[in-house]
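Good morning,

Attaching, inline, the backbone tokens for the sequence recovery test we're adding to the shared suite. The designed sequence is right after.
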């Protein structure tokens, strides 16, 4: 994206200007022109944001699954940059997400945020969504969360497809087997499908473990697998990888 790249250029220019015996002459006017986004890009991002808002409005009043509409606190649409290069897709909101109206805000979400930040990105730069926009209902006496059924996912998947078509990310990351089933229509064995490039409607798709799996399984080897998947994503996005990142363990 334009703005992060320009920020790096500007920072480099400022460092050169401040360190040289004969300072590089960079006028305030030149810097201002550099940071001004192109009108076409602004219009494109605004159009994507408006299109996503229209889909969100449909989601907010959706009653396609009456049992979920009755039990939800609110729908959980998605969050992040409408012009993101990278999109993360999970399975469904949990209790924390249902209460906040934002995906991945519980313990698993905090771990996902840490992964994103270690990639050199932020939640504001990527886009995060789920297959299901409502929390799957639970019996009154039960606690925790349940995965969505195939029927629930097939009913709701149209909203996610619309999000992907609007955002047009360069890479989609599917978090966990349920997300894979929702996107590709078949549930595979994670140890066989993760870490390999797949395709979703001609968009490169990386499959990796859901952050909640890493919370349950504290094995350094499993954590390293997820990080290797994320380094492959960075390479696909043509982003530099530092030695610190290459040696990092979650």
């Amino acid at each position: 994206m334009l703005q992060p790249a320009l920020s790096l250029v500007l920072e480099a220019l400022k460092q050169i200007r401040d360190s040289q015996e004969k300072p590089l002459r960079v006028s305030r006017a030149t810097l201002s022109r550099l940071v001004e986004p192109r009108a076409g890009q602004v219009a494109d991002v605004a159009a994507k944001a408006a299109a996503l808002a229209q889909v969100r409005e449909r989601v907010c009043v959706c009653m396609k699954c009456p049992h979920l509409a009755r039990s939800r606190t609110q729908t959980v649409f998605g969050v992040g940059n409408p012009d993101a290069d990278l999109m993360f897709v999970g399975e469904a909101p949990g209790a924390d997400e249902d209460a906040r109206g934002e995906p991945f805000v519980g313990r698993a979400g905090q771990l996902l945020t840490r992964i994103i930040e270690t990639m050199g990105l932020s939640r504001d730069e990527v886009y995060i969504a789920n297959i299901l926009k409502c929390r799957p209902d639970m019996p009154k006496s039960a606690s925790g969360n349940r995965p969505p059924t195939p029927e629930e996912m097939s009913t709701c998947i149209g909203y996610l497809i619309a999000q992907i078509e609007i955002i047009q990310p360069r890479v989609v990351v599917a978090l966990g087997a349920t997300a894979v089933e929702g996107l590709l229509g078949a549930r595979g064995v994670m140890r066989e499908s993760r870490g390999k490039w797949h395709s979703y409607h001609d968009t490169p798709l990386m499959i990796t473990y859901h952050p909640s799996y890493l919370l349950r399984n504290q094995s350094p080897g499993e954590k390293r697998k997820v990080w290797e998947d994320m380094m492959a994503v960075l390479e696909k996005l043509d982003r530099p990888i530092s030695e610190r990142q290459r040696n990092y363990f979650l």
